[in-house]
Amino acid sequence: MDIPDLSESARAVLNSIVMAGESTRPRLSVATNLSKPTVSLAITELEASELVAPLRSSQGHTGRAASVYGLSQKAGWLLGIDLGSTHVRAVACALDGTMVTERLYPARHARLTTNSALAGRAAEVVSELLSALRRSHGPLRGASIALSKPVQPLNDHTGTLGASELTPDIQSIIDAVAVPRGVPLLVENNVSCAALGELRFGAGRGKQDFAYLQVGVGIGAGIVAGGRLQRGAH
Q1: What strands lie across the sheet with 52-58, from one edge to the other?
Q2: Which end of the chain is more exposed for a tag (fewer CB within 10 A), N or C?
Q3: What average pLDDT does the segment 126-145 reach?
Q4: What is the pLDDT of residue 79?
């Protein structure tokens, strides 16, 4: 997640809060290796940007109560879009991974539909969620598209890459889904996305090596070794 116009110290404090869920200024100072005055300035900057807000006070055994900070509700949100063979599924979540809403739309006419044929429906979903969440949760900070097809090892589709960097079919899907320009966009194979999901939230959490096998319209496998997704046929 890259939020422009933040100082380096504010980025470090924000990332620490995202990873921890919530924290106090003293704990943030330890986690980021920043001085307490620098952390205080970073908190002020993040509060002014509506990225961070005080949640409550925490009283220790001695001394003054410490404010506990967490993500503001309007800090922004992330969007995941699954263009399957039979459906479009969209999930919006807060920056800490908490789900905000989920939408599922079966393919309208065919049992097995190509990713490109569903891209227009996905664009409708993107537009709908942007309209619904902008006021309550702030701006879209990042998006990902999962495709039921091989995807080349280029996973940094931020809108600044030349068209020659992408295969024409992938580029046409990206264009049709119409994620707003400037929003960081990740494009990946759906089984690889599922393996990453298990690594972060599911059965693979805390494990360094495992394989995810999907048996559906086709058979696919996502392999995590050393805590990293392995890519390529070999």
Answers
A1: 22-24, 66-71, 52-58
A2: C
A3: 92
A4: 95
